[in-house]
Amino acid sequence: MKKIVLLTLISGVAMSFNLFATTQKLLAKKEQVTNLQWVDPFIGTGGDGHTFPGAVVPFGMMQLSPDTDTVMRGVDPQPEIYKRCAGYHYDDHTIVGFSHTHFSGTGHSDLGDLLIMPMVDQVLIEPGTAADPDSGYRSRFSHDQEWASPGYYGVELLDSNIKAELTTTERAGMHQYTFRKGEEAHIILDLTTAIYNFENKVIWSDIRKINDHTLVAYRATNGWANNRQMYFAIEFSQPIDSYEFINLDDNRYRCMGCLGKEKHSTIENKQVKEAAGKAIKFVASFNNPTAKPIKVKVALSAVSKSNALENLKAEIPDWNFAHVRKQAEQKWDGYLSKFEAQGTTAQKRQFYTSLYHALQAPSIYQDVNGEYRGIDGEIHQGKDHIHYTLFSLWDTYRALHPLLTYIAPDRVGDMVQSMLDHYQQSYDKMLPIWSFHGHETWTMIGYHAVSVIADAYLKGIRNFDTKLALEAVLATSNSPIYDAINEYKEFGYVPMDVLPESVSITLEYAYDDFTIARLLEAMGKPNDAKAYFQRAMSYKNVFDHSVGYMRGRDSKGNWDPEFNPEEAKYMGPFTEGNSNQYTFYVPHDVKGLIDLIGGDKKFEQRLDALFDTHLSDEMIKEHEDIAGLIGNYAHGNEPSHHIAYLYNYAGKPWRTQERIRQIMDTLSSDKPDGLAGNDDVGQMSAWYIFSAMGFYPVAPGDLSYAFGAPQLPSIALNLSNGNVFKVEANKLSHSNKYIKSAKLNGQVLKLSFITHQQIMAGGTLLFEMSDKPNKQWGEANADRPPSLSN
Amino acid sequence: MKKIVLLTLISGVAMSFNLFATTQKLLAKKEQVTNLQWVDPFIGTGGDGHTFPGAVVPFGMMQLSPDTDTVMRGVDPQPEIYKRCAGYHYDDHTIVGFSHTHFSGTGHSDLGDLLIMPMVDQVLIEPGTAADPDSGYRSRFSHDQEWASPGYYGVELLDSNIKAELTTTERAGMHQYTFRKGEEAHIILDLTTAIYNFENKVIWSDIRKINDHTLVAYRATNGWANNRQMYFAIEFSQPIDSYEFINLDDNRYRCMGCLGKEKHSTIENKQVKEAAGKAIKFVASFNNPTAKPIKVKVALSAVSKSNALENLKAEIPDWNFAHVRKQAEQKWDGYLSKFEAQGTTAQKRQFYTSLYHALQAPSIYQDVNGEYRGIDGEIHQGKDHIHYTLFSLWDTYRALHPLLTYIAPDRVGDMVQSMLDHYQQSYDKMLPIWSFHGHETWTMIGYHAVSVIADAYLKGIRNFDTKLALEAVLATSNSPIYDAINEYKEFGYVPMDVLPESVSITLEYAYDDFTIARLLEAMGKPNDAKAYFQRAMSYKNVFDHSVGYMRGRDSKGNWDPEFNPEEAKYMGPFTEGNSNQYTFYVPHDVKGLIDLIGGDKKFEQRLDALFDTHLSDEMIKEHEDIAGLIGNYAHGNEPSHHIAYLYNYAGKPWRTQERIRQIMDTLSSDKPDGLAGNDDVGQMSAWYIFSAMGFYPVAPGDLSYAFGAPQLPSIALNLSNGNVFKVEANKLSHSNKYIKSAKLNGQVLKLSFITHQQIMAGGTLLFEMSDKPNKQWGEANADRPPSLSN
């Protein structure tokens, strides 16, 4: 807190020296009530949150952030690489440098493009090790002299006494390095480092100095995305006084017919200011660095160097760091003001930081001239929409995408259209599964793009090609080449002898099919809808009545003989989970599931057992993703996210209320390690936002929300239609965690559900809270939605 | 000969079965007098000619040709790699496969993209060795069952009993494989092989099956051109019955956080019909292969897969191999009919094969939709001209480009415009030096693009941006970053302590500056011209009067103390040559050079000494390019090409006549090893064509030609202006090699020179030949051009 307040002051001072200052002074009053102050980008950078603390704007292509330990060229993979999926970990004590692309909260990773690091006097071209930072260009740092806020990151590099500051626009970033000592400043541009690096990750790179202060560069890497191409435009605020190109590529081309000579009967043009190869670095040197800060602007493009230059010119035309920062803050402020939340400082820090993390992706993947690189590797012209990338759909269809329909509805249509771009440009004629930067990773399961599309369409968002959307949804859900859709359709389930993770896949296909049925219904195609509602019942085919669990089943109909409901076996029938968890994965027909399990009481007991039965490490030893445990409930991973809400469907909303508070109290905080597991590109954060308001989209596409309990005394949501939807929680306290009663705009709510339409109509959802459960309220959830069995 | 006649018949038979046949029959009479029959693509495939025998159309982007020994992945570079710059060498006995890009006659190499080879029954995925062809998919072959003619190549693969045939369009090629045995045919697409291959040459590749008979592929290689990108569209004439993707990339991406597992907590989509990595192959299999030939169409693009598909569809829409071949032959026939030559079969074979080799490059480097990849790596749209690549300018400015102004004048303007594209897109703001496929190799010396531009402009070719051309010529010749132009301007020569090859560079800059002066003159800028005429005199600054030779000189003015006029020292003051040769490199002021050397007599003695003094291997041990020796004269390399003509300037044309015949008799033949050295993308062939006609452009840009002696009894050149320029040599014979007299259109020629204007005016240049030299004729070459000293 103190740090952030201080920064606001510093920023204000800086602003008064520039042309922008007048406007800013007029805005000063408004700034005092900004929610920027509650965002702490360090939340999630500890533990396994995997968020990054650096500078970014909402949905920005540029994520400019410090890396504390990337794996370097020629160094063996570190055992702790998972810890640094976002490049930075709060536990670390050294900063390697600042790179320009980062995932927020993923469990697997890539990126970390173009690392930049300033030095004084001595030139070091290798980063050195964390154990011996003096062996390279990395520097020690301290969290006491480190500051992060939306659109800004700053740190004192203790070894060199340089203050490094970062800010960004959508496609460009600015570094500002303030030197306090030294005769000569050196700034290294290192094209060899990467996040989730490994030997030979860099396929090719080049860098070229095009005038005395500008460079362009290119790098293709083979990582999670193969042959991922990124172009860079780099500009320094003052002419480079001297420079060095470094080529450490030991496999670089040598003429073989030249009798041992490197060149073929000519003179290499050594004056060409370029280096190309697999291990390229560049060092720019500046005299008299203490005279004024040295700034570096960097713009990205996935298309070309000329586009990177164009992006740079368009987005950061001058050298006013404070102005760029202010613009970034205004962009953040616009989104952060969607909510007006009351609560303790810790609550507001958690809430607004969650909102901040929910606005990271899908991210823009298009140049200012409209060009982008498609999934086919080709350059396309986006005509009437912004093209987005980074669809971590297995995670984000659950709560993030539903949340975006409220807080960034203007972008949702373009995000859908971007998935349709993917569909059209995909040789496989598939919507994205887990895609980023023009690459389908095929990570995780299901075809949850259909859920995102159905949810948007059903909520009335139609600024995308709806006809193409229907085509894409049908083609994807019937793809002959994807995983085991053929067998799913043939057997009514995915046989475990056909594919691992067969039960999870069956269950998730079934849910996805429910959303397609809902979409078809809404599009006026009831017959087609019926067939998909039928497919959505497939979950019943992997429920083994003899044990009362979802269970692997082979193509002959035999149940998995090695079945153990606690075991999360790698390449077993479940995806990052066990049967205890996945048996609850029927979000679209909870009533049907309750019937299968044997009624409300049995269902409630099974939910209790899930939360109360300790899950031994032995059972999950191969899954680093299964984290944030309460018994078998794993809050750190997505298959559990809806489960606490399921008590509602058994007429026991007060039990959900207990569980949500239990999760809030034990598995989240406003500290760096405050996330119970990977934020997963905002899904964990979206869970927090909905849950803090008191409800959650158990089955997106249904448009109903099941109640938990409000966690903050008041949260108002400013809707895009001009309405305000406010949740008030009277008498909310540590002990008053139960809902005594609920009223929507004065009308008593008898059931513990609310609909999208009710939210959009605005008004106040007023909860009376109590320290005792109201066990009668919601007990008769007879019409509890959603249900295919109704 | 017999082979080619037979082929014409086969082709005729094939044609009668298609729609095209009627037209062809009408053309049949004309076909009987076609010059196609005289072209033998095998000439130059032996010795060090470095030409390829495969199928190509004039200036085609696609060069589809057999490779007899490329160096494979994981195999050590072969000592004889220089021998196989064109992929094929006549000495070899096995064919590895057929690849789609080849240089014609270069001394260094690259390319060999996408190797395709058919097999029967047994699938082999490695090529095996020449010593043990059965160890891989390669096959033995015999020249007795091998056929090549313009636009066609065929061979019997003896191990598999498959007849392989190839033909092409500009951007696409067709393979036709006739199987005579076997249950199953296999066709491997190998993305790991390359010409001038070496470990890690393949940066990245991928291949994808997009339907049952079509694939698209990509490959980036690091060779002479770094990160050279090529895209492929591949279509089979029948559906693939089964297939295999092969990924031998042992460095391919493995998830490092996945506890030893390859994939991260999900199932890789194995059904995606794609492979990507650094060592990718694909095998297509077909049942019942003897039923009908299996054909494969392949199109190239340097821009994208979609462009490759578009090129394929546009250029080879159907499966009519004979039709594609016939089209290719018609294109060749159009160019080959530019000349009507009489002579012995061997002479006509040499002459028309030279013409064939002179029409290989610069080659088209642009897709049918106009897009091409520029020197900046970016995609550009060619609006009003065809974009060409492959500017081997140090070689080709001498005779090839001057020749093209007569035989392909319609293309010359576009070639110049392509060099201007290069200039505009070059970060270095330079015209090409030695460029191909969007890459400047900086190979060889000088800035000879200016010579090509000046020669074209002076000859009245103006269909390019002449204003931009002037800008480019001036910028290039004053480039602050290229080699040693700065020092050249400062000292009047390139000091040997600044750059190796300093004398050669000085001399060639001086010549180039002469052509710029000529251009400026023609553009009406006499003052600017004067300055360049002055620069053109710089050759005098490296002439050491004390020894009478061009000699290395340092920046203090001291002469090279290790001077030896015979020594061709690697990284010494001369480029692929010695002072004996380079002292004659003042093509633009031979009179001035004669004065330096001490008058006509001394000059003649020095020329004689050049030809008559044996050059020991010791002196040239490091230069594989210095070949085709007569004494110190190296016909196999370009610095010598003009030297035999210099006797003219000393009033001794009869000595030139003797030397030309000596060179013709001893250093060229119509056999595979008939070229005395690398054809160098047509330069050697252009030398032959001019020399066979009896004259040669000693100093392009001057527009004068010095006489040698006609070598064929009659050669008529059909000019683009409708005129015919005919050279007749009365009484020419083995002994009658001397010119007794010469008449142009009945007017006696007293000097042994002719001008471009005289050629373009058409008419007959009639030589009377004799077995005795006419020592008086041309003795008084007082006004011998060109001369700066006049």
From TrEMBL, chains A, B:
Q: Which sequence ranges form a coiled-coil region, renumbered to this chain?
A: none
Instruction: Spell out the molecular function terms from Gene Ontology.
Output: carbohydrate binding; peptide-N4-(N-acetyl-beta-glucosaminyl)asparagine amidase activity
Q: What UniProt keywords are attached to this protein's entry?
A: Signal
The organism's place on the tree of life at top rank: Bacteria
Residues passing through the membrane, by range: none
**One Pfam family of this chain:** Glyco_hydro_92
Residues forming the Glycosyl hydrolase family 92 N-terminal domain are 38-301
Q: Which Gene3D superfamilies match?
A: 2.70.98.10, alpha-1,2-mannosidase, alpha-1,2-mannosidases domains, GH92 mannosidase domain
Query: Signal peptide: which range, if any?
Result: 1-21
Query: What GO terms describe the biological role, i.e. biological process, of this protein?
Result: carbohydrate metabolic process; glycoprotein catabolic process
Q: Looking at the UniProt record for this protein, which Gene Ontology cellular component terms does it annotate, in alphabetical order?
A: cytosol
InterPro entries, alphabetized: 6-hairpin_glycosidase_sf, GH-type_carb-bd, GH92_a_mannosidase_put, GH92_N, Glyco_hydro_92, PNGase
Q: What is this protein called?
A: Alpha-1,2-mannosidase family protein
Every Glycosyl hydrolase family domain range: 307-771
| Lineage start | Bacteria, Pseudomonadati, Pseudomonadota, Gammaproteobacteria, Alteromonadales
